[in-house]
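Suppose a colleague, Dr. K., hands you the sequence of a protein chain of 405 amino acids and asks what its three-dimensional shape might be. Before reaching for any lab equipment, you can write down a predicted structure in token form. Begin with the sequence itself:
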Amino acid sequence: MNAHQYGRLRARWRRATRLLAAAAAMVTGTAALTTALAVGPASAAVSPVEGGTLAAPSVTAVTAGLAHTCATTADTALWCWGANYAGQLGDGTTANRTTPARVGTATGWAGVDAGASHTCAVRTDRTLWCWGGNNRGQLGDGTTTSRSAPVRVGTATTWARVSAGYEHTCAVRTDGTLWCWGFNRTSQLGVGTSPWTATSPLQVGTATTWAAVTTGFAHTCAVRTDGTLWCWGYSSDGQLGLGTLGSQTTPAQVGTATGWSGVTAGYAHTCAVRSGTLWCWGDNGYGQLGVGSGYQTAPVQVDATSTWRGVGGSSDTTCAVRTDGSLWCFGKNTTGQVGDGTTTHRSTPTRVGSATTWTDSLAVTEHGCAARTDGSLWCWGDNSGGQLGDGTTTGRSAPAVVTLA
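The predicted structure, expressed as tokens, is then:
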């Protein structure tokens, strides 16, 4: 893809973001379900980060799409809320939800990940289900038909974890194989330049040592069981970490280091934890690499410490947790998604409040959400589609707890 083509792709993404936000704002919330979660904004009398009460049941994982949020709880139920124009909430409708709504009545949900307008989740029986927008086959059900309720991806019962990107999806099976499907315009599926679109899962190579995968806008990265890191797709700003710009049609190893334990792909940047150190590369227009200005085509260490435990970020903002349980964010902050109470972009890690009980379950796009060790869930940033779950469409620049009724 040449610079002109990529410019059109970037413009399309930015335009889509504006249109989706506008659509989210136009759709009114439906009546609250009797089983819905009740969410209260932070009290003005207490710190929005330190206040709040324990949520029950406890939140075990959270994911943030472009304008929607989903979370699993300790009883293995699945909840989603926010923009729903493509059915990405999985509740059988296309109506926005400003408070969390249960996805069906069944339990048994083990993990979930939200893309721009679609969502995928793995059940405890190791089946895989997707729903929402499907114009590029990102649901993996063999069609390009959008779905407002979960549809099963094939018949396999060996899915371990899934990552939903902008218009493509990848997942790892229990046998260590890696599979991708959806849009492949920039070779983000890792199977070469063809097909242009895959409506069903395609195996990426023949390796059986894949441990985890993350999907960005036009690139994908994954970690193997030996701790090596691999990336592929488009590298407009160095987001593959290979030291060059341009496309990579199949997985390529990022350097020679091992010890990579976590990786997250943003819009055009990537960050990962390696043996307690934090590294980022790619686009840095908002400071999302945490190392000042200028894009980087190879991993650069964010700071000199070795106390980083986990990292998340799917747009132009990055959040990471230290071993002491503190939460730090940096990058784009137009809608308060850094969570520091401002809308000032941050080019170095900025601490979010003073709490030391944040878990590795965190996600940030135009809004952010994270779970604490007490099982409570906190969200902040853009709220145009009701993705903060507080019953409003008013954004906020600092975390507020999502409490259960």
